[in-house]
Amino acid sequence: MAASARSFHTRSTSFPSESHPNLAGVQECLHLVKAWEACPSGKAPLVTRLGHLKDLYASIVVFLQLPLTQQALCGKERLVRELMDDYLCLMDACGLVKDSLAHMREQHQTLQSMLRRGVTGLESGICAYQCSRKRMKKDMAKCLRLLRNMEKHISSSNDNLDMVDQVFNDVRAVTVSTFNALSSVISGRKAAKSIFSRLLSSMSSKSDEDDVGEIEKADAAIFRLHDTSLKTIRQEDAREAQKLMEELDVSLREVEVELEDVFRCMIQAKVSLLNIVTGC
Known about the structure:
By secondary structure, the chain is an all-alpha fold. Helix content is 76%, strand content 0%.
């Protein structure tokens, strides 16, 4: 009888089935993140996707804290350590994106202050902004390389997975895709030209046919003020640059807030995984 009970206990440490309510919650959040990519750009703000990603990691934390999940993962130490390593890389990518967005907002605020005071010091301010944009692009290139390496790892480990392994794999894939999109946007890469317009879709009536990213528009307006062929800055150019920077400031702040929440949830997920490893 004792042997039979022990055998039953061993079987109970397998991963929960698809009908398990907490796993279903993870899958539902995962579906919402994936569904974002299928939405028309004008109806799917990127901040919404980040909100879904935050909810996804929050549901993962709940799932990882279940005793049944912890028992099952004790038998898959390699998977847990891989997840911990991947989450660390994703947190690095998230931090790079978040810091770049914050730095861009700071630079925009400095330039707006200069424009309000007049043209005094504006040339040096724009030169500083150009240098900061170059640094941002280098950081985003580093971020994209990091994400590409993760994409290769995810695609190479996509065979013969059980259901929960597949869910974790999908979570990593959608996270990589989201940070990839943000990194490309900050870099001003044309491959992401339509993505950033989703940030402003709830506040802007601009046509989806406009194929220039909002950051690129702001950059062009700022650099136009530094056109050496113009002896004086035209007021309409200054107003346009201010308008675009103000719009971006609102949107970038929204993205920063969501990214910070995603980052915190990822830390909690990593801590939960560490607790599983130390508790086994």
